[in-house]
């Protein structure tokens, strides 16, 4: 273990230091997710923090450990969103001037919320690594203190308090599944959990598009790029300290595809009535992707944050409805003559399938001039209900094809 790696004493001290200034979020058993996955699933709702993410813990612990002169000069941080809000919020509480450098694609909601906490926001670069480099440059130019989002012993110790609370509330948990970006959360949680319960398994969950920690641990060269819904863990290079701690303390890292993360976001809304950003749902996505790994285990998941753009959330939910067969777009070919559209719509009414939108196309098609096609977006009870409608359309002589999403 690295000499500067925080231990259980540091994490317990952090818990005392931040007590009362962060929310002691609940850890609750999800009966429905347990039935769905075959594991006993406990959820830690860190999306209920004031800034809607666990990052407050590490940020506050770091700020409280700074001397008064350092606080007066101010701090700077680089973040895709949640760390920035945490530093800004607690910086304002403590009277510390805060500057945040964020990647340009950061969701607008996170930028606005960070500015709302009184921070000065600088948008730079496309990914965290570029924003990070700019922040380190400004640190020297302006004489500020850099608050690292994950590769800092004080930050890691603060994040480790999540595990202390989980095991205090649900001591039968035998497996923790934790999202990995830079590695700060899983490093702190693993250090705390292994000290309290040495035989506990700690499993990392990382987005397939950004497998940086997985690649390091496995000794492989793997690209980290692309648009992921889990932008909070889209880190190309994990921390130096966190890499050592993960290598020493984490039992396994699992990669999860984008579709599983989308499904997990949707399930948390539908089942738990809670909003999770992509990174916050990655732990559940790992259970959905690798159910055999966790079947029969008492699994603790951290819903790490809930700061998802509302438009993106709407898209994810609608895509999930389409994949499950509850919403569909059907393309129907028909003769372009009076009554043709009515004859199609009548079948929808007979099958009690709700029509949401109709798109009628006569010109931009390679069909004969007397033909047209219509795209009908519709809502059904489930896939079987939709299949019944498609069969009825076919029996009535219509050429119909579902417009698939992937």
From TrEMBL:
Keywords for the protein's UniProt record, in alphabetical order: Lyase, Pyridoxal phosphate
Superkingdom as given in the UniProt entry: Bacteria
Chain ranges of the ACT domain: 329-406
Example of a GO MF term: L-serine ammonia-lyase activity
Keyword Lyase: yes
Swiss-Prot/TrEMBL catalytic activity: L-serine = pyruvate + NH4(+)
Pfam families hit by this protein: ACT, PALP
Listed cofactors: pyridoxal 5'-phosphate
UniProt-listed GO biological process terms: isoleucine biosynthetic process; L-serine catabolic process; L-threonine catabolic process
UniProt family annotation: Belongs to the serine/threonine dehydratase family.
Protein name: L-threonine ammonia-lyase
